[in-house]
């Protein structure tokens, strides 16, 4: 194959750009290892534009017109015979890939003349043109509507080519891509020309920089190698004159493909372009199997190979024959097996192949097998091919009929059975067991929840989404597969509300409380309307909540002060109290009773309170007389504690009956007084009379009398 020679001549039918000498020119392109020419036109005068790439591709300018424009120095082409060109350069020859880039500004152009940005690899100036013509056509596509192609604006134009694909970019945006093929004859191999095609003084273009590279600058244009289409062995009889067949390949780059033989006898030829294979077996002995190998290339280092066999059967070769035949009707639950027996009159090696059959049928060596399922009842076409080593073959075709089975697939066990109601924040297991007759093996399972896959075993688990999922409906489905059969079951799951009862906060177990102490709790149920809540407190004598002391109902806050919510008689003093709280809201949503066992030691209400009476440390224990005396309803009794001691106060009536006893625990030395308010037990609950009060501090005891007048 004659190697095509790619040389590069470029005609830019464009007007050149001007530069502002008073300002430093901005460089748009740089020199790198792929640059073979770069002209910046910074000279601003003279008849030479120097190539700064180091390759010496300097341009000679005729009719030069240097201009300044928007800070850029460049050349103007105004429709005269102005032009510039390089001398022949080896660096511009043989470029299988290249990129031409330029910065241009279109001032004006006229109909039918136009200015072209035109690469030439041939002497035929119509071989390929692209650019800004008067009608703005490129690759047969109009660019008139392209917003990049406007006059009086600097734009970047780039053309790159690899193989047979050319692409045009304006301001780095791809505007056209098509097959591109150079012409056959060259007018100036290795010469760059920049100028104007068709003189017309009404045309006016500027050009600033031009760079030519030996690679595609837009690197997404990477060559893709051709690929052979699948090919089968060639079978050609002996003494055959010019047997013709074809190989085919695909190339996504539209490159011109070239074919050649790598391995094979001389009597096989392949056309370099059409890939037609001609085989002439005249004088070639039969009974041969010859390896063949072919290569395809795109001219740009992209290649692919294909290997196959040339089979030349012996003269008079006869085909093999079937010696066994299959059954043609089976039950749906029966495995089909056909052992293929063959004979060959030439004692050739025979192989078997399944040409047609139902899904799931397989051929292993000489054994054809299939396990049908109930869903494939009916007729199925089957074809088996036997072939000797020289390509002689015979085919056995038959209809295999599948009749109904006495068994069917079914779910032997499902849990839960039927649609189910569950509660928030619960975990529910689902089970399924499918059987065929009594056989539960061979099944695979696929579970979904609301069509989302969750499991491939015989079970799955549904976890609800917390305490705000009440009212949701979910669908849990399972499908069991066995061979080609399947069966499914779906549960409808409705989620109901699960209430969260109150949680006790304070007091913690074994705390000691007084009449002014508080009980508190908290609510975390998101469905509970706290702003419309009603709470109830219950008090018990025992931890089993059997013996009831009393209750407080319709509390609106999550705390309660004992002496503000309870009557004096409700709770015993100096005793262990068990309590719990229940809650409901005005929508009658009841979240139940707290689960903890609340317990505290209740001392007494505030009818007797002790307070410090002043500084100092007494020398001895003392119990003073109450004032006023007689009193109603409040009296105050002073006392002194000489040393740190456990202190208690007792009040009895004149008959010795206990009215009140208070244990204050250990008190530091000091002067104190206690106040007794008889109304805290209700007006008139303590009658007029003489009462005896006793102070005990450690082992020290003293008693005095007081008079209450109601």
TrEMBL record:
Domain of life the protein comes from: Bacteria
GO terms under cellular component: membrane
InterPro entries named in the record: Cadherin-like_sf, ConA-like_dom_sf, Ig-like_fold, Secre_tail
Signal peptide per UniProt: 1-24
Record keyword Magnesium present: no
Pfam families in the cross-refs: He_PIG (PF05345)
Keyword Mitochondrion on entry: no
Keywords per UniProt: Signal
GO molecular function, one term: calcium ion binding
Protein's name in the database: Uncharacterized protein
Organism whose genome encodes this protein: Candidatus Raymondbacteria bacterium RIFOXYD12_FULL_49_13
């Amino acid at each position: 194959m004659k190697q095509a020679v790619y040389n590069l001549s470029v005609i830019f039918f464009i007007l050149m750009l001007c530069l502002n000498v008073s300002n430093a020119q901005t460089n748009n392109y740089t020199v790198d290892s792929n640059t073979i020419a770069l002209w910046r036109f910074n000279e601003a005068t003279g008849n030479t534009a120097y190539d700064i790439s180091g390759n010496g591709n300097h341009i000679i300018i005729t009719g030069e017109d240097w201009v300044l424009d928007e800070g850029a120095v460049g050349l103007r082409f105004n429709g005269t015979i102005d032009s510039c060109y390089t001398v022949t350069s080896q660096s511009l020859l043989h470029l299988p890939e290249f990129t031409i880039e330029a910065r241009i500004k279109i001032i004006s152009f006229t109909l039918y003349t136009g200015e072209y940005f035109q690469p030439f690899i041939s002497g035929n100036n119509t071989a390929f043109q692209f650019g800004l013509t008067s009608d703005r056509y490129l690759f047969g596509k109009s660019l008139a509507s392209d917003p990049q192609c406007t006059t009086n604006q600097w734009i970047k134009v780039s053309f790159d080519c690899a193989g047979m694909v050319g692409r045009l970019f304006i301001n780095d945006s791809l505007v056209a891509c098509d097959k591109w093929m150079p012409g056959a004859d060259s007018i100036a191999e290795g010469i760059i020309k920049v100028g104007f095609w068709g003189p017309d003084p009404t045309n006016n273009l500027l050009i600033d920089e031009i760079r030519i590279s030996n690679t595609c600058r837009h690197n997404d244009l990477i060559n893709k190698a051709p690929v052979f289409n699948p090919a089968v062995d060639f079978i050609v009889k002996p003494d055959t004159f010019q047997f013709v067949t074809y190989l085919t390949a695909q190339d996504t780059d539209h490159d011109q493909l070239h074919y050649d033989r790598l391995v094979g006898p001389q009597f096989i030829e392949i056309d370099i372009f059409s890939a037609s294979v001609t085989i002439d077996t005249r004088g070639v002995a039969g009974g041969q199997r010859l390896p063949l190998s072919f290569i395809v290339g795109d001219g740009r280092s992209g290649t692919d190979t294909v290997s196959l066999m040339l089979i030349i059967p012996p003269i008079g070769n006869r085909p093999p024959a079937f010696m066994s035949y299959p059954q043609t009707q089976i039950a749906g639950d029966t495995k089909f097996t056909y052992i293929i027996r063959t004979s060959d009159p030439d004692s050739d090696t025979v192989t078997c192949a399944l040409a047609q059959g139902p899904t799931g049928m397989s051929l292993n060596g000489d054994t054809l097998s299939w396990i049908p399922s109930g869903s494939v009842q009916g007729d199925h076409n089957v074809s088996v091919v036997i072939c000797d080593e020289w390509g002689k073959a015979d085919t056995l075709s038959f209809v295999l009929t599948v009749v109904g089975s006495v068994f069917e697939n079914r779910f032997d066990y499902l849990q839960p059975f039927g649609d189910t109601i569950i509660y928030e924040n619960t975990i529910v297991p689902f089970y399924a067991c499918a059987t065929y007759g009594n056989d539960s093996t061979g099944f695979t399972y696929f579970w979904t929840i609301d069509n989302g896959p969750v499991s491939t075993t015989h079970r799955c688990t549904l976890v609800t989404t917390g305490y705000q999922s009440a009212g949701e409906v979910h669908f849990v489905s399972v499908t069991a597969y066995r061979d080609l059969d399947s069966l499914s079951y779906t549960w409808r799951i409705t989620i109901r509300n699960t209430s969260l009862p109150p949680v006790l906060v304070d007091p913690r177990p074994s705390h000691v409380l007084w009449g002014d102490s508080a009980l508190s709790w908290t609510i975390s149920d998101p469905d509970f309307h706290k702003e419309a809540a009603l709470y109830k407190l219950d008090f018990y004598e025992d931890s089993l909540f059997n013996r009831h002391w009393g209750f407080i109902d319709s509390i609106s806050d999550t705390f309660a002060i004992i002496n503000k919510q309870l009557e004096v008689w409700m709770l015993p003093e100096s005793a262990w109290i068990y309590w719990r709280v229940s809650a409901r809201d005005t929508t009658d949503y009841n979240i139940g009773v707290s689960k903890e066992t609340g317990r505290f030691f209740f001392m007494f209400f505030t009818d007797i309170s002790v307070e410090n009476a002043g500084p100092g440390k007494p020398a001895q224990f003392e119990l003073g007389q109450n004032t006023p005396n007689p009193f109603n309803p409040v009296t105050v009794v002073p006392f002194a504690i000489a040393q740190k001691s456990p202190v208690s106060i007792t009040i009895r009536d004149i008959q010795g009956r206990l009215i009140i006893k208070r244990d204050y625990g250990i008190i530091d030395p000091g002067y104190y007084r206690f106040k007794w308010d008889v109304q805290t037990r209700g007006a008139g609950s303590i009658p007029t009379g003489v009462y005896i009060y006793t102070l005990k501090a450690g082992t020290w005891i003293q008693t005095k009398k007081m008079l209450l007048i109601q």
